[in-house]
Amino acid sequence: MDPDASKEAIDDVVRRIESFDCSAHVSSGSSQTVIGVIGDTRTVAQAAAWGRLEGVEKVIRVMEPYKLVSRQFKPENTVVEVRNTAIGDGSFTPIAGPCAVETRDQLFRTAEAVVKAGATVLRGDAFKPRTSPYAFQGLGEEGLQYLAEAREEFDVPFIAEVLDPRDVELVASYADILRVGTRNMANYTLLQEIGSCGKPVQLKRGFTATLDEWLQAAEYIYKSGNTEIIMVERGIRTFETASRNTLDITAVPLLKQISHLPVIVDPSHSGGKRELVAPLAKAGIAAGADGFMIDVHTEPETAKVDGAQALLPEEFEELMGQIQRLGAALDVPVV
Ligand code: PEP
Ligand code: MN
User: Fold this and answer.
1) What residue's CA is closest to ligand 1, atom 6?
2) Radius of gyration over alpha carbons of the chain, in Å?
3) 269 lines ligand 1 (CB under 6 A)
4) CA distance 97 to 34
5) Closest CA relative to residue 45, chosen from 25, 12, 22
6) pLDDT tens-digit series, residues 202-227
């Protein structure tokens, strides 16, 4: 719509869209309103006719298979707010914590260290997707209770993975942000369930997914009513075997151009090795990511999950110092 389109003109366009059995998605930015037409748009009158309506600036056909998460649809960045932290507002959000909650003590020691070093969101999982059915699967609800206690103790929101649509309500009753892991990116039942959970969600890229597939997965969540989505580039499976996965750094600026959703990097699960975490984290902030998520463990050698990629608290603190300096050079606040 024209920047100065009246409310009547906007309402009129919405009414006309609805008269074609389509629904209208109105997104009001600070400078302009964009009205999306959702449904079988073949039934809708010619674009040229819409262009002549009062208040309409231009008519764009979004050709991509994802619409709601596209920047054409919503030109302004989506900002996800949790407690005192905002993700996607131009700052860089450091998220850190243990891969899995193992004991209350382990969680608390790690949480204290990462918050002290500057992390503004705590990570820690109570449900772990393990390749081996014999491996540690997480503490379940007990783990979520410890995380909720740590949130109060250290005044920090937390994020936790949900594996099963039947657990969405449970995890959402504790966590500030839910995560869909790489293995579940294409679990459409889970995505739809999360769409109505009322909590922000991190959507990891499937390790074999193209950007198109990843964005369509986000579209499932958005379409189901949850607009607070954080995309996580966590590495993809390539021909290279020297690292666990290849962090697709190109995906960061590409996604920022194509979509309005915030995007963060996971240098831990992509590289899979401690010594790769800091370089990949720095590449992330330089490429324009809205944050990172890093595994930290006080005793990586005894970790029940992913010890090889966990940073020690002092290594995380050192990295945070470097990220602060990079942020200052790039004019990106690290909070
Ligand atoms: C994780 O973040 O703990 C995790 C399991 O990551 P991914 O789904 O990317 O493997
Ligand atoms: Mn892990």
Assistant:
1) 181
2) 21
3) yes
4) 39
5) 22
6) 999 999 999 999 999 999 999 999 99
